[in-house]
Structure formats: structure tokens, C-alpha cells
Amino acid sequence: MLAPGAEAGEFRQAQPGYAFSFPCDHYSHDDFRTEWWYYTGHLRAAGGQEYGYQVTFFRRGVAEARANPSRWAAENVYLAHFAISDIPRKDFRYFERVSRAGLGQAGASQREFHVWIGDWEATGDGTTQRLRARGDGFAVDLSLTSQKPPVIHGENGISQKGEGRGRASHYYSLTRLGTEGTLTVGGKVLSVSGLSWMDHEFGSTQLHPDQVGWDWFSLQFEDGTELMLYIIRKANGRPDPYSAGTFVEADGRTIRLRQADFTVEVLDRWKRPRGKGVYPMKWRLRVPTLGLDLLVTPAFPEQELDTAKSTRVIYWEGAAFAEGTIRGRGLAGRGYVEMTGYAELFRKKL
């Protein structure tokens, strides 16, 4: 269904004043061009081994198909990534899929929380979910239970990503998902438990031409708090003023962070072995207003995805650990870091 006033083939823009409503906003928003459901987490097997995982579903609207009256026109393309980080062995595996919606092979429902490509799927009611993905001897089959309400990022219903009307998204997270199920590693099925994080974001614009990539952090701490930060990098190497974040208290209350509220210092770097590109690989995060001072360290450097068969983007997405202080007391946790625009200039190719 097109947004009011939209012409055939056009997409709705993310504008201030959007009022989130759950569980409906867990569903697909086909009137926006781009949407993703993004899962990351840390899992521990019964034997104590630690693993990180990522499962991401993307929906990309096709403007030409929306203007095509044929009932055979495919209005959306669906893509997905699945990755496992075997932390003790420092082994990283990833898989990708792409499909149109024909014959029910892929889709995202506008009537319930269900997104899938083949037998990769996320389904549920938002509070409880089931997540499944697999590839060549690796798989996850997980039950996720939200321990906090959805956290809405940004202000007045939008997460502004750059200067200009509509250069924004609607963005929320489920920051603390209790997780249980099975993880298959090299064909061996393990019972696991841990914590996951889910981002859901939808909008219709690209990055500004002067924006070349981003660094995104999601961290879950042992005291029940969480932190999300993203830095959008400009071509001159400086952070865009629209970089932002959210700190989530243990009771679910949120504190919005603007770019001036935090600093991210790069302490180490890693040169990718294939082709050009050097990634930051250790960070000091400081939020003076919170008394927060953190050292964030990746589990290991080799957690890069080259998604030539789906989204056609080279990016780094990996498990990480955090340790530091907040308000004068010790703080430790786990999380994920995502980085784009280091192996190549980021120009969204979805």
C-alpha cells in the first residue's frame, strides 16, 4: 500500500512525528524502500565455549516493479547474511542468500512478524521469537525472549542520518534478548544460551555523497545496561554531526546521545589480507556525561564479510568484548561492532 500522496513507484520518506506501534512495527513496511532485521549475539555452549553469531534479513523495494500493473511483478528483493564467530578457534564462517518473493521462496509479512528466505527465518510476536539459519555444517536454531521493551532511537520518531529532508530512518532495537537453542559448528550440534540484540530499521534514502561509511557498536553489560553508538564518517575523515547513540538503563529508561556527547578513539588497526583496506581494531569509548570509559576489543580480527552474491558490500561485523568503568564502578560486557567503507567507499548497492 502506497503512502498517502505517493505516486506509483515512489517510496515513503522517514519523517518526524512517526509514532511506533508494537507489535505492528516488527512487521514489514513495504512503503519504504529499504528495511532490515538485524540479529547479533554471544552464545555459550555447555562446555564453556563462546561463539558470536549474526543473522540479517534485508528487504529492498523495486520502484520499477511497483509501477508495473502486472501481478507477476516482484516488488521486493530479499537478501540475508548468516555468520558464526568461533571465538576459541578464531574461526569465522559466513553465508548469504538472495531471492525474489516468487512462489513463496522469500518474503516479509505486513500482517505478522515473519521474514524468511527459504528455511532461514525470523518469526514470533516480538516479545518471543524463533530464529533459524544454516549453511554447510553451520546453523542456528534459537528461541529469543525480550527482557526489555523496544528502544526507539533518535528523536521525534526518526533517526536522522544526515543533512536534508528524509535523510533518516525509523530505527528501534530489542537490546536484551535472552537466548536459548542450538548452534551447529562443523556439523556438531551444541546446546547454547546467551544474549542477543535485534535492530529493525526502515527508510528510503541513501547516505549523503559526503558520507563514506560508518562504525556501529552494540554493547550489553553485565549490570543489565546497554549502549548503542554509531559514527557516520565523512570524506574528510571526521564524524558527521548526525552520529548518535542511546544508553539504556537496567530498568529500560533511555538516554539519547548526540555526537558531541561521546568520543571514540582508535587504538589499533588491522590490514585486511585480500586487497586494500585497513580497519580499526580496538577502541576507547568515552561518554563523560555518563562517567563511562570503555575499552572495546574484537574477539579476533578476521570477521569480514564480502557479500558479492547478495548485497555486494564488503564490511566487517564481529563479536567484541568491553571492559571499563561507569560512574566510578567497574563495567564489563559483550557486543558487536560493524564497520563499512574501509575496504571500499560505501555506496549502498542493495
Set down the secondary structure blueprint.
Layout lengths: L33 E12 L4 E12 L1 H4 L9 E11 L4 E10 L5 E3 L4 E5 L2 E5 L3 E8 L2 E9 L4 E2 L6 E2 L7 E18 L2 E16 L7 E11 L4 E9 L9 E5 L5 E5 L4 E9 L6 E10 L4 E7 L5 E3 L7 E13 L2 E12 L10
Antiparallel strand pairs: 1-2, 1-13, 2-3, 3-4, 5-6, 6-7, 7-8, 8-9, 9-12, 10-12, 11-12, 12-13, 14-15, 14-23, 15-16, 16-17, 18-19, 19-20, 20-22, 21-22, 22-23
Spatial separation of the terminal alpha carbons: 22 Å
Task: Give the total of beta strands.
Answer: 23
Domain count: 1
**Unreliable stretches:** 1-9
Structural class: mainly beta
What is the N-to-C succession of helices and strands?
A: EEHEEEEEEEEEEEEEEEEEEEEE
Summarize the biggest pleated sheet: 13 strands, antiparallel
What does the overall shape look like?
Answer: globular
Percentage of residues in DSSP E strands: over 45%
Compute the gyration radius: what is it? 19 Å
For the record, the CATH architecture stands as Beta Barrel
Name of the top-level CATH class: Mainly Beta
CATH topology value: AttH-like fold
CATH superfamily: AttH-like domain
User: Number of helical segments?
Assistant: 1
User: Helicity level, as a percent range?
Assistant: under 10%
Q: Can you give the mean pLDDT?
A: 91
